[in-house]
Amino acid sequence: MIDYDYNKLAKMDFFKIKGKHKSMPMSERASIFMPFNALEGYKEKLRQAEREHAKQFEQEERIYKYGKK
To answer: Which domain of life is it from (predicted)?
Structure first.
């Protein structure tokens, strides 16, 4: 088992560590977090299921209030 010195790691100032890469400009950094549609069509399927459940709920509610027709 490897023994890590977590106290030393926790106290490191990561902003002062110089690596191979330059810092990414803020204008590019924001594009990383842009939303994207990972599951194409998923929202529409959810809306469709919501409509179907709402319709079923309305039918059951009508039966409960007025009896089966």
So the answer is: Bacteria
